[in-house]
Structure prediction request, 81 residues.
Amino acid sequence: MKMEHENKKTQQQKVIDRIEEVGYVDNFWAIENYILRLGAIIYSLRKEGIGFKGAFGKELGKERAYWKNYYYIPLPPPTSL
Prediction:
């Protein structure tokens, strides 16, 4: 018998999955998924080496929005010295 909590994802994993799915994450999606500290998660992911760029929706082909979307930016591989 599996424990119920084994199937639950962390908030950080939900954000990563969303970015892999659509290429960005925004506050409206986060709130709908009960993620209230999106900025803290983005900060943690940046510290782990995942790049993000904040933008206001033009990259999605929309007019300027009043909320910020965070887009994933692939980082170049580290160079050896």
